[in-house]
Amino acid sequence: MFRELLADSYKELLETINSGVAVYEVLNGGLEGKDYKILYFNRAALELENLPLDQVVGKTLADLRPNIDEFGLISVFRGVWESGEPAFFPAKVYVDENYSNWYENRIFRLSGQSIMAVYDDVTEMMVVQEKLKTSDALLREVLNGMKKAIAVYKPVDNGEDFIFVEMNEPAELITNYRIEEVLGKRISALFPAEQSVGLVKNLRKAWISGETVKIPLTKYEDDRVSIWVENTIFRVASGHVVAVFEDTFEQRSAEQALKNSEEKMRRYLENAPDGFFIANTDGRYLRVNKAASLITGYSSAELLSMSIIDLTPEDSHEVLMKNFNEVKEKGRADVELPFIRKDGERRIWNVRAVRLSGNWIMAFKSDVTELRRTQESLRLNESRYRNAQRIGKVGNWEYNLQSGDFWTSEEGRRIYGFEAGSSLFSTEMVEQCIPERERVHQALVDLIEHDKPYDLIFDVIPHGTNTRITISSTADLLRDEHGAPLKVVGMIKDITKSINAEKALKSQEKQYHSLFNSIRDAILVIDTGRIMVDCNQAFLDLFGYSREEITSRSTLDIHADKNQFVGMEENLSSIRGVDEGYLTTLNYKKKNGVVFPGETNIFKRNDQNGNHAGFVGVIRDISDRKALEQQIRQSQKMEAIGQLAGGVAHDFNNLLTIINGYSDILLGDMDENQYGREELLQIKQAGERAASLTGQLLAFSRKQTLQLEVLDVNLLILNTEKLLKRIIGEHIELVTELEPGLPPVKADRTQMEQIIMNLAVNARDAMPHGGKLSIRTAFCSFGCMPGEKRENNQHGTVNLTVSDNGSGMTAEVKEKIFDPFFTTKESGRGTGMGLSTVYGIIKQSGGEITVSSEPYSGSVFSIHFPAEDAEGLMVDSAIEENVRSNRGSETILLVEDEASVRDLIETSFSNYGYNLLCAESGIEAIRIARSTTTPIDLLLTDVIMPGMPGPVVAEAVQKLFPNVAVCYMSGYTSDMIGSQGVLEEGTNFFHKPFLPSELVRKIRDILDSL
Fold first, then answer.
1. Running DSSP on this structure, what letter comes out for residue 299?
2. pLDDT for the residue numbered 879
3. pLDDT recorded at residue 790
4. Cβ(125)–Cβ(210) under 8 Å?
5. Three-state secondary structure call for residue 717
6. C-alpha torsion sign, points 431, 437, 443, 445
7. Can you tell me the distance from the alpha carbon of 762 to that of 766, in angstroms, rounded to the nearest whole number?
8. How far is CA 635 from CA 628, 641, 754, 802, in A?
9. Nearest C-alpha neighbor of 747 from the set 802, 707, 795, 702
10. CA distance 789 to 791
11. What average pLDDT does this structure show over 427-453?
12. What HEC string does 242-298 produce?
């Protein structure tokens, strides 16, 4: 190892110096960083690298410094290796993933295959130098305040000459040149005889070596100057060379002063601003100056009786003695230590100590407490500033127009998506993050060239992401003392959240206005003085005003009753202090003067600070509700009448069952010309008309049970034609146009008659002074228009058209004619249920109804029923045949509480050969079922009976005879029958009144289907 080859004296020397020392073995001619193998690093070098020795020795320079080939140092190494001449590599920043520091190197070739680099980390010096660049005025003030002449030079022609960069006022006196006469000028041009003192030569030496060079007292003389001058020359971190020189008079004065140096030194030390201490090797003070007393608070006599440990806090004794021993061993130390003043205050010393001959220790101690506090405060403020930027997502930036350098704060880099400490940051990298870079760049140009304000909002896509954020950027242009643009300073702020919040607020406002205007109730906003300030579209539509007409007007203008307006003031006052609303009904007046009742819900309204700002009213026009309430009262009255009609119909159904039943039996037993047959036929016809009347009563009560059958519409119209003429009166002409061969429809006969009657009555009321009522039928096959001829065997609809040439209807009336309770007749002349009943019957039968009408042009009601196959239509021959096939021998259990009806049914079935078991109640029926030895084939029972209803009887009988069929019968209304569950699909049911032959046919059909 190289360390082992060094003499002990050299080892100790290299290990104690503060500069880093590295020795490299040169491989392959030293062309690249990998060709320099590390043989030795001294202590200082290892500390700079922060690495142990075993992780350094044996590696190449490229291993340690990955970017060394771009650093520029290798070419200098190669030059030293090839020429053998030492070289100096001035301070330069080295950057890679682990480092960003300034270094300067002095390179020497050693014997064998090695070279040595002595280097220093001059980062702090460079930082200071950078700060000094911004302190030119202060520097000049300091320079001019010095007694010695100072000149600063910059090398040109590789150090063959130098030009003046700076010079202070004492230098003007010595050189007889003003500062502005020398700046930027060469030494050779200003001082042609400089070679006599070797100024340029020694400047170059100091510039290359970095060492301090002195030119002893020498006389300089040319046509302009004749002077004795002594120069001290040294290179500074910027690469410039500084010369400090004095004239002969000052030198002579210095020589004279040297004769009295001890006295002068004594006075200097006594009056030095820093505390001066001399102690022996035991740490006891031997000498102190005045400043030492001022710093510590102790008198000189007190200090001379103390030792160094007496002024140090106990918790720092170990550190103090370590540094004191270091001075004794190494000769010097420069540290900071805490100390305790006499008054007990703990403060901080900066101690610069050296060992003197005679084993004395000399130290200058300055109180740096306030400086450190200021620095800590500055550090804390900088931390707070960075945190404030980070929390507020605010960054600042600068763009130097002269150097092109771009800088931004840590938070600014974070906003653009870069590491806070990254040195890889430029305007190009920022522009790559800005989609609208052309607009942003143009704004910067306008600021620099035209002084236009720079205040932008634009989107940014942070580096390495696909997320878009929005930032606000403002900037100002700074100029130099001549007015030339110097640099742009600016601020950026991430305003994404506020922009998104603003967008969300606008969206919410849009949704609010959309909702506000889409609410069907009228909404009015008023202030505390009951002045209208806003409203929704429904309010404008309801009252007929424009928004401009209602704004700033009093609500008195929309009140129909001034007393109500005045009385509302007390109610409004009552809700000012509560959160609940107030509900009332008021009379309002529209713009056209129409008055209407309005249900009004009033709420208190607060401003954004929570202060009372007025009221919000929600108004609903309840005119229709008032009318509906009246209609409901009328409907309730009609419902009561309907219930009465239903009860009467039940009793009639039982009576008519007996009358029509026995009439049918007797007629069946008489010959065609037998005496009394005609009178009996009249009785039967009267019974049938009474049954029809009962059906109309049930239809009126809207509780009839559907009796669907296949009907011939033409025949139905012909059968009702005489009745229609009596209903419409002689002043109205009735015309029927019936298409022959019309297919049948499936519907309830009674309800179909009711449809025709209601439409005829409606037409009659529309023609009070006479007119024409036309009833037409036609078939329309699917795909053809009404009135077109149908093709054979093609399904379609049977169309029934009822038209009149009466008063007709307006569009508004036409829209409501099928609504329940709607009528155009005077009060007491109609319930408004006629057409709504027609509509319901048609829909229940699977049909459709449409109406066309114009005022004074009559009305046309078109009804369309699905056509049925003609095979379902019964004819007399089929009925007769059916009568002949209705005989049977099965056992039937009859349950009927009405004795006369029970006797009729018993007589009817006994004529057809059936075995009939009769019971007057459910209990008796169950008893008969339990006691009979003959299986029961069918149970025929009334639905509603005293004691036990029909469904309960059926359940009990089915337990005894699981295969028994059940058929129900009743004369009650559909709602009462439906409550017993017998109107469900698939249930056998027969409605009273009925003919015995019809009942027998129904029972035969049920038994045959088993």
1. -
2. 38
3. 46
4. no
5. helix
6. positive
7. 6
8. 10, 10, 20, 27
9. 707
10. 7
11. 87
12. EEEEEEHHHHHHHHHHHHCHHHHHHHHHHHCCCEEEEECCCCEEEEECHHHHHHHCC
For 566-581, what is the HEC assignment?
A: HHHHHHHHHCCCCCCC
Helices marked H in 312-398 — which ranges? 317-330, 369-392
* Cis peptide upstream of residue 962 (ω within 30 degrees of 0): no
pLDDT over 70 (residue 647): no
**Position 353: which residue type?**
A
Taking residues 432-456, report their average pLDDT.
88
Residue 743 in contact with residue 782, Cβ under 8 Å? no
Q: Which tens digits make up the pLDDT trace of 388-434?
A: 666 666 788 888 888 878 888 888 888 888 876 666 667 788 888 88
> What pairing do the DSSP bridges indicate for beta strands 522-526 and 532-535?
antiparallel
What is the β-pairing status of strands 532-535 and 582-589?
A: unpaired
Do residues 969 and 898 make contact, with C-beta atoms less than 8 angstroms apart? Answer: no
Which token pair is 665? 């039996």
On the CB side of 318, CA atoms within 13 Å amount to 1
Token pair 């829909």 is at which residue? 843
**257-273 pLDDT tens trace:** 555 555 666 676 677 77
Residue in the block written with tokens 């229709």: 624
Burial degree of 389 (CB within 10 A; 0-12, 13-18, 19+): buried
Terminal Cα-to-Cα distance of the chain (whole angstroms): 120
The secondary element (H helix, E strand) that includes residue 469 is strand 469-479
DSSP labels for 920-933?
SSHHHHHHHHHH-S
The distance from CA 656 to its chain's CA centroid, rounded to whole angstroms, is 75
Query: 3-state class of 340 per DSSP?
Result: strand
Beta strands in 15-65 (DSSP E): 20-26, 36-41
What is the C-alpha separation between 958 and 375, in angstroms, rounded? 107
Do residues 147 and 170 lie in contact, with contact meaning Cβ atoms separated by under 8 Å?
A: yes
Name the token pair of 1008: 């045959």
Inter-axis angle of helices 623-669 and 677-701, nearest 10: 160
Give dist(CA 841, CA 696) in Å, integer.
Answer: 13
Instruction: Copy the structure tokens of residue 719.
Output: 């059968």
Q: Packing angle between helix 876-884 and helix 996-1008, nearest 10 degrees?
A: 70
Pull the structure tokens for residue 820: 């329940």
Q: How far is CA 134 from the centre of its chain?
A: 49
Q: Which residues contact 440 (CB under 8 A, 6 or more apart)?
A: 431, 434, 456, 458, 473
Instruction: Taking each helix axis as running N to C, give the angle between helix 950-960 and helix 922-931, from 0 to 180 degrees, rounded to the nearest 10.
Output: 10
